[in-house]
Amino acid sequence: MTGKAAALKDDPSRAEARVATHTATLTLYTRAGCPLCEEMETEIQVLIAGTGHSLARVDVDVEPSLKARYGWEVPLLFAGDTELCRHELDLTAFHDWLRVRR
Description:
The chain is α+β, with helices and mostly antiparallel strands. The protein has a single domain, classed as Glutaredoxin (3-Layer(aba) Sandwich). 37% of the residues lie in helices and 21% in strands. It has a four-stranded mixed beta sheet, covered by helices on one side. The longest helix has 14 residues, at 35-48.
């Protein structure tokens, strides 16, 4: 676990996420060998632990239409059709998304 992920785990604001009643699956668009993708995935897994939410990882290089659509713009985190963040985790947007799911 990276230092940033460990700090996220200890974040007291995460307590509100643990009472989620409306679970959802987030989609993380990635590609193999992308360190930013791996970092964002680790951070999100820490933040959603115990909430009932899940994370689906999609490799954009596997699907030609995704590769054409997103190119090098990974990682991208989506909740349904809504983009939450790109390239790095936007904690404000993520926490706003979690609050709506309570």
